[in-house]
Structure formats: structure tokens, C-alpha cells
Amino acid sequence: MTRRLPGRRPAAPEAPTGLEKYDRVAQETASVVIRRYSTSFGLASRLLGADVRQHIENVYALVRVADEIVDGAAAGAGVDPAHVEALLDALEQETEDAMLRGYSTNLVVHAFAITARRAGFGAELTAPFFASMRMDLRRMEHTPASFTEYVYGSAEVVGLMCLRAFLVGHATTCPERIRFEEGAKRLGAAFQKVNFLRDLAA
User: Fold this and answer.
1) Mean pLDDT value across the chain
2) Are 117 and 102 in contact (CB under 8 A)?
3) In this structure, which of 7, 26, 39, 100 has its CB flanked by the most CB atoms within 10 Å?
4) Assigned domain for 5 exists
């Protein structure tokens, strides 16, 4: 019979710190949002590697929450239209603060900030996004110029956010980055225009 030699037990793995646990829960929350709100996009995102997939889910979750303020759950809850823009303003401010501090009491915003800080983007992409969300509240018809501005903020910058997530840990040359960014913007714009056509056909 083999006897176990006396010795120290293997050290138990260290418990996650408060922030590590909060980060994990926040990102799990973002993952739930994409799975519950977009079956097709959620399934497609599962084809990505785990790290990239989580970043894409974090971006999607914030975009979804903003969209629900403008054209979804807020109206269903009976929020006064005059107050909807204030809610959107508050979400934008919370997002900007979280990107600077690395923390938010809003789990979805916190998850988004993790991605923004790791992928290296900030208000230069989120500000146009929120500006386009406000256009949904204020403008019923577009001029060619306002339409271009709207598509950039509502779709092209989201493509740029996702591109930054894809490029985390990958070195690129300046010409490569310019080419990638142009492709990301065009793809985002194409998806948005398809959505417009689908809405018109409904």
C-alpha cells in the first residue's frame, strides 16, 4: 500500500479580487443581452475566439441598451418622451466616465468600458453614436448630409469599435489600419442600410 509522504497541500487558487469578480459578472451580463435580444447575431458571435467574442458582446450590449432607451423598453415602460433624451444623456455620461475610470455601477456600461479601455477607443467613437441616437428622437426626415452623419454614428462607428476589438494584441501598419477601418465602416453602413430597407418593406 502506497503511503502519501507528509507535505504541504497544494495551495488553493486565490479568490478573485472584488474588481475581477465584478468584471466577470459585468461581462456575463453583456453576454446575456446579446443572446436574449439577437439570436442570429448571438449565434454568429460564437464563431469567434473567446476573447474577441466577449468584446463584441460588450459592445453589442451597450448599443442595445441605448436603442431600448430610444425605441423600445423606455416607451413600453411609459417613460415620458421629454425624459427619454435625459436618459440617453445620462447613459452617455456614465459611459464616458466608465471609460476614464474603469468602473461603472451599470453592469453593461462597465463591460463596455472594459472593451473600450483594452481596445483603445473612447469618446471619439461613442460621441457620434449617441449623437445619432438623439437624431432618432428629433428628426423624421434626412437630408443627404444628415443621413451620412446618422449612418456614421449609428453604424460605422460600431464597426470601428468591433474592429478595434479584433485588433487587440495584433500589430498593424498604418496602411493596414486605414484599409481595415474603411472596410469596417462600409460593412457597418451596409448593415444599417439593409435595416432601413427591411423597415420600409414591413
Assistant:
1) 88
2) yes
3) 26
4) no
Number of domains in the chain: 1
How far is residue 158's CA from residue 163's CA, in Å, rounded to a whole number?
9
Q: Compute the distance between CA of residue 104 and CA of residue 96 in angstroms, rounded to an integer.
A: 10
- Given the C-alpha cell 477607443, which residue does it identify? 121
Cα gap 146→141, rounded to integer Å: 9
Q: What range does the domain containing 157 cover?
A: 18-201
Query: DSSP for 117-162?
Result: HHHT--HHHHHHHHHHHHHHHH-SS--HHHHHHHHIIIIIHHHHHH
Q: Looking at this protein, which amino acid is placed at residue 48? A: L
- For residue 3, being part of any structural domain is answered with no
Cell 463596455, residue located: 112
Residue 129 domain-assigned (yes or no): yes
Question: The dihedral of CA 14, 20, 24, 25: what is its sign?
Answer: positive
Tell me the pLDDT tens digit for each residue of 16-59. Answer: 678 999 999 999 999 999 999 987 777 778 888 889 999 999 99
Contact 158, 132 (CB under 8 A): no
